[in-house]
Amino acid sequence: MGQTEQQEDDYGYNLFPERNSGKFQKRSIAESLFTFNHKCQVMLQFAMETSPYAKLLLGAMKSSGCAVYKDRHFSCEDCDGTVSGGFDATSSQIVLCQNNIHQQSHMNRVVTHELIHAFDHCRAHVDWFNNFKHLACSEIRAANLSGDCSFHNEVSRFNFGLKKHHQECVRGRALRSILAVRKVSREEAEKVVDEVFDTCFNDHAPFGRIPHDKKDAKFANRDFENRDRYYANL
């Protein structure tokens, strides 16, 4: 990507108008209680307390020295109609699109997807703005590990299993995420995704496996929570 293109790239901030303005709106109590914002906050709290995906990621980040706090690291905001959430590396904050997330299952997936980016930001010191391969790798991991490409979700999208369907779903969703936040050609994005795909697809941290469904995620979370007990008995 040329220098001129980099200067013109807004890194996807145009999709988050409240954040793009540089002015976070302070909502009144009434607005917080009776709007999308209140519903977003309630669903977020429920996801953090009950989703095995989110619980494992929150525990892993705490163990890595990057504890996550609801009021500091999450923000429910109105967004462009094409996105559900985002990770803002400049503020280490997850944006949840309150006008686009209406079901708890959707909230769970978005929280998980963005927490994977936050985990990568914590453990790998990702250069989100200058290293295209770093961005592509995190998008591959988020699509692979968040449940975005679970069988249930793919069937609901009328996408049925061909050979290596999961890999193709991950590749496609990572590609769409990159194109949404970077002003690059599809060919360039595909090239970078292909270059890092195998390595990043096989990086399952902190789950230790691909959690294809909630049951898998529960087992992964159980193993994570019991890891210290295991090592203590060696």
Automatic annotation (TrEMBL):
Keywords: Hydrolase, Metal-binding, Metalloprotease, Protease
GO cellular-component term (any): mitochondrion
Name the record gives this protein: Mitochondrial inner membrane protease ATP23
Broad class of enzyme this protein falls into: hydrolase
E.C. designation(s): 3.4.24.-
Protein's GO biological process: mitochondrial protein processing; mitochondrial proton-transporting ATP synthase complex assembly
Family, as annotated: Belongs to the peptidase M76 family.
GO molecular function: metal ion binding; metalloendopeptidase activity
